[in-house]
């Protein structure tokens, strides 16, 4: 099929100079640590994001294992309840803000310019700034654990008045750290939007972009829309704690429920910020290994946009038991259920892409297929939770924990793993060790399900979340979950091994590392040279 | 096709230094608030951030004047500034949303209204009203009075709207190539911004000295100060930006058709103006 439209582009394009006016192009970058501190290169910054995220994934993972070790048996064994609360809080905060979000931003940094044929991100210095804010923010956040009174202990949702009136003194530092992380996210998102809207290769229309780019465009919009709201609500917390205001105190005419509304107005889109890029990754990988174009490309784009818009109208489904008026219960119940429609479109499209495909099961594909199956389980438990009267029973039980871990671990995290295995040949020039990768995959799948599936039953039986001790009838489920958690946690070391081996050597990868892959990144050599697409490529719509 | 090139700066030390400076400032704020430490750490961080911004913008100005930027670069800046202002809109939206929620739901519910108005059991004598002069808790002392919107707030509204007009006149003059006219109108805009800040300061003094409207005076004081306070900070920042632009106009940095720094500053200023209109209506008048 020849492209019907001539490759005209409404925007003018330019060749690129790298380096300052006086310096020659491609002058030697600074060596050693300075190279990483001062870089403006999207690939180097992307690597920094990914390495940072991996480190934080392990730190957050250790916190999770502390939780699971304590819960291995009923009774208090290892940690005191105050520290347990700090672990649940920090595990959530680190995994959300320091592991999953930076991992997706790192992938965006590496792959968006390569996928749209751009020389770099639109604003390279701002890009570096966005990254280096993260280590600063999370050093500050982690340091609260060592402060008098301990770190944040009120859960990652930091509901007032637990996080204001009854909070440890370190909460002020937690707020300031979150401000820095928020600035990083907003600036990163602005950069990504500017890059996608302004830097596409001549001839590439919006509807020609790979879905990873599309989902990130929409994610970046969500980030810019809701991170400032988070900044606003934590500022109000800061004022309540330090300056005597009464935003979240009924005694002064404020309302603790106001905190929850503002938090979840940020928090629900935030959930989609962590899953939309995963949708994009899976939508890129499944066609490659099914050796078929993605089924229903436009509907994928529209479904993503619909999910993003709906995410602004569903926030109070996190607050069904807080005492909302009946009209609000009904509105948020039905609007939440509506999300199943565009999500169903996506699942349908992935399955239909596989239908009659010529499928092979390399590690990226395995993780993507597991994503489709296991994310759908998380989606279904989400539907159960959306039913307001049923949620009255499930609320704050382990059923909720099972639900959101199914969408975040075999959802977001598996997609990140899939992306790493998929693009490692492009990053390093070598294929990852497939045998080890398959071991990593199967151990992860077994570990994840062993950890989180029993939590459904524990929750339905009435086990509350965020407690260090529990009634005896939950003992078996918890023991299984803990065994699964340690299996999952330690099998991630295999992932590190695969990555290290892949960086050091392995089977050489050609430019087009996967047979069925035809996005622009596969037209540049593997490993991708430091500077690519300095002259914009002429984008040709694939003829399939 | 533009004849130019998309400029990718090689390396820069400002981003990482800026991150560290911001971290120092935040750490200093925390130390001061939590442990009553002196403000030295915070000020070191602040000076660091301001210096980094100065150097960073200096580099950008030099590159721009050196002809390194092309029209595609210009579009990147436009998208960047546009989405930055959108993020600011959402920041204020959180505070306006809080105000609307408090006025529409929280305070009436405290008075027992609605099917879930059980909180009335806590304070059965509480009478809901806005502005909230009588916070339900005994420990919270409400304000003694409120401002008339038709005095200082109205003056400030007129000042800010006028400043948007003078800025537009300055911009039109720049586009026509009348640099001196532009400079004069821009000077007027900066002065109007300073007047606004001065009057807002006066109003804050009145609030504390005579009206008992303080941060501690319940939810009215809290919403009043967080909305007007963050707006005031934005006016101060906007005035500084316009002052810098004024210096650059004076030095002849801007061409008739190429002056995005000027435009970005004026977008920002108009945004601050629009926020004030919202404030005037919802905080003062209604």
UniProtKB/TrEMBL annotation, chain A:
One of its GO terms (biological process) is respiratory electron transport chain. Coiled coil: none annotated. Cytochrome c oxidase is the component of the respiratory chain that catalyzes the reduction of oxygen to water. Subunits 1-3 form the functional core of the enzyme complex. CO I is the catalytic subunit of the enzyme. Electrons originating in cytochrome c are transferred via the copper A center of subunit 2 and heme A of subunit 1 to the bimetallic center formed by heme A3 and copper B. NCBIfam families: CtaD_CoxA. InterPro entries: Cyt_c_oxase-like_su1_dom (IPR023616), Cyt_c_oxase-like_su1_sf (IPR036927), Cyt_C_Oxase_1 (IPR000883), Cyt_c_Oxase_su1_BS (IPR023615), Cyt_c_oxase_su1_dom (IPR033944), Cyt_c_oxidase_su1_bac (IPR014241). GO terms for cellular component: plasma membrane; respiratory chain complex IV. PROSITE patterns: COX1, COX1_CUB. GO terms for molecular function: cytochrome-c oxidase activity; heme binding; metal ion binding; oxidoreductase activity. It comes from the Bacteria. It catalyses: 4 Fe(II)-[cytochrome c] + O2 + 8 H(+)(in) = 4 Fe(III)-[cytochrome c] + 2 H2O + 4 H(+)(out). This is Cytochrome c oxidase subunit 1. It comes from Vreelandella rituensis. The chain crosses the membrane at residues 48-69, 89-110, 131-151, 171-199, 211-239, 271-289, 301-320, 326-345, 366-387, 399-424, 436-459, 479-503.
TrEMBL record, chain B:
SUPFAM superfamilies: Cytochrome c oxidase subunit III-like. InterPro entries: Cyt_c/ubiquinol_Oxase_su3, Cyt_c_oxase_su3_dom, Cyt_c_oxidase-like_su3, Cyt_c_oxidase_su3-like_sf, Cyt_c_oxidase_su3_a-hlx. It is found in: Cell membrane; Membrane. Pfam families: COX3 (PF00510). It is a multi-pass membrane protein. The keyword Amino-acid biosynthesis does not apply. GO terms for molecular function: cytochrome-c oxidase activity. Coiled coil: none annotated. Residues 2-286 form the Heme-copper oxidase subunit III family profile domain. CDD domains: Cyt_c_Oxidase_III (cd01665). Its EC number is 7.1.1.9. The chain crosses the membrane at residues 12-34, 40-58, 79-102, 150-170, 182-199, 219-247, 267-285. GO terms for biological process: aerobic electron transport chain. GO terms for cellular component: plasma membrane. Keywords: Membrane, Translocase, Transmembrane, Transmembrane helix. It is an enzyme of class 7 (translocase). PANTHER family: CYTOCHROME C OXIDASE SUBUNIT 3, CYTOCHROME C OXIDASE SUBUNIT III. Belongs to the cytochrome c oxidase subunit 3 family. This is cytochrome-c oxidase. It comes from Vreelandella rituensis.
């Amino acid at each position: 099929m020849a492209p019907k439209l001539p490759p005209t582009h409404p925007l003018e394009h330019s060749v690129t100079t790298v380096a300052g006016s006086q310096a020659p192009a491609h002058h030697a970058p600074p060596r050693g640590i300075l190279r990483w501190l001062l870089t403006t290169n999207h690939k180097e910054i992307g690597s920094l994001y990914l390495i940072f995220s991996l480190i934080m994934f392990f730190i957050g993972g250790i916190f999770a294992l502390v939780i699971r070790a304590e819960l291995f048996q009923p009774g208090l064994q290892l940690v005191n309840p105050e520290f347990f609360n700090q672990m649940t809080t920090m595990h959530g905060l680190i995994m959300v803000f320091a592991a999953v979000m930076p991992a997706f931003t790192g992938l965006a940094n590496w792959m968006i310019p390569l996928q749209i044929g751009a020389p770099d991100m639109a604003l390279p210095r701002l890009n570096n700034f966005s990254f280096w804010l993260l280590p600063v923010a999370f050093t500050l956040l982690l340091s609260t654990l060592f402060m008098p009174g301990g770190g944040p202990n009120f859960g990652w949702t930091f509901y007032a008045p637990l996080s204001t009136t009854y909070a440890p003194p370190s909460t002020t530092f937690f707020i300031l750290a979150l401000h820095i992380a928020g600035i990083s996210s907003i600036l990163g998102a602005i950069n990504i939007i500017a890059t996608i809207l302004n830097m596409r290769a001549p001839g590439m229309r919006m509807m020609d972009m790979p879905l990873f780019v599309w989902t990130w465009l929409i994610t970046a919009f969500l980030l810019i829309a809701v991170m400032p709201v988070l900044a606003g609500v934590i500022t109000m917390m800061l004022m309540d704690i330090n300056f005597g205001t009464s935003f979240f105190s009924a005694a002064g005419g404020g309302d603790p429920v106001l905190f929850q509304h503002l938090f979840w107005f940020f928090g629900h889109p935030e959930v989609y910020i962590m899953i939309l890029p995963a949708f994009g990754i899976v939508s890129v990988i499944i066609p490659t290994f099914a050796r078929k174009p993605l089924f229903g490309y436009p509907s994928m784009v529209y479904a993503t946009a619909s999910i993003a818009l709906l995410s602004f109208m569903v926030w109070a489904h996190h607050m069904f038991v807080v005492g909302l008026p009946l009209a609000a219960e009904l509105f948020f119940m039905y609007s939440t259920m509506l999300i199943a429609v565009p999500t169903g479109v996506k699942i349908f499209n992935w399955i239909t892409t596989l239908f009659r495909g010529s499928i092979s099961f390399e590690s990226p594909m395995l993780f993507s297929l597991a994503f489709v199956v296991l994310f759908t389980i998380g989606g279904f438990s989400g539907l159960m939770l959306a039913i307001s009267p049923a949620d009255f029973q499930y609320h704050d039980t382990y059923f909720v924990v099972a639900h959101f871990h199914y969408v975040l671990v075999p959802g977001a995290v598996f997609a990140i793993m899939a992306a790493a295995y998929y693009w490692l040949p492009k990053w390093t020039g070598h294929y990852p060790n497939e045998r080890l990768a398959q071991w990593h995959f199967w151990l992860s799948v077994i570990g994840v399900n062993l950890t989180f599936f029993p939590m459904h039953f524990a929750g339905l039986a009435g086990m509350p979340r965020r407690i260090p001790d529990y009634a005896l009838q939950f003992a078996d489920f918890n023991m299984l979950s803990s065994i699964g958690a340690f299996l999952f946690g330690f099998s991630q070391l295999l992932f590190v091994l695969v990555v290290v081996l892949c960086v050091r050597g392995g089977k050489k990868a050609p430019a087009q590392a996967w047979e069925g892959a035809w996005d622009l990144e596969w037209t540049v050599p593997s490993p991708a040279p430091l500077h690519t697409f300095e002259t914009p490529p002429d984008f040709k719509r694939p003829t399939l | 096709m533009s004849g130019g090139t998309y400029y990718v700066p090689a390396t820069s030390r400002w981003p990482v230094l800026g991150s560290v400076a911001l971290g120092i400032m935040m750490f200093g704020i925390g130390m001061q608030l939590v442990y009553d430490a002196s403000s030295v750490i915070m000020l070191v961080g602040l000076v660091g951030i301001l210096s980094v911004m100065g150097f960073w913008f200096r580099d950008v100005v030099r590159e721009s004047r050196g002809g390194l930027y092309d029209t595609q670069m210009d579009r990147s800046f436009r998208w960047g500034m546009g989405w930055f202002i959108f993020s600011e809109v959402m920041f204020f939206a959180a505070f306006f949303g809080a105000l609307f929620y408090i006025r529409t739901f929280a305070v009436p519910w405290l008075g027992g209204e609605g099917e879930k108005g059980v909180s009335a059991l806590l304070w059965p004598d509480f009478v809901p009203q806005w502005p909230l002069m009588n916070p339900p808790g005994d420990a919270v002392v409400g304000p003694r009075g409120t401002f008339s919107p038709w005095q200082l707030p109205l003056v400030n509204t007129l000042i800010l709207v006028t400043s948007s007009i003078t800025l537009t006149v300055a911009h039109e003059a720049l586009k026509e190539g009348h640099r001196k006219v532009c400079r004069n109108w821009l000077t007027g805009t900066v002065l109007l911004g300073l007047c606004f800040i001065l009057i807002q300061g006066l109003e804050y003094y009145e609030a504390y000295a005579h009206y008992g409207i303080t941060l501690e005076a319940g939810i009215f004081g809290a919403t009043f100060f967080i909305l007007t306070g963050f707006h005031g900070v934005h006016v101060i920042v906007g005035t500084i930006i316009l002052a810098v632009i004024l210096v650059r106009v004076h030095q002849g940095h801007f061409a008739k058709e190429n002056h995005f720094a000027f435009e970005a500053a004026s977008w920002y200023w108009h945004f601050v103006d629009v926020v004030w209109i919202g404030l005037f209506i919802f905080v003062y008048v209604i």
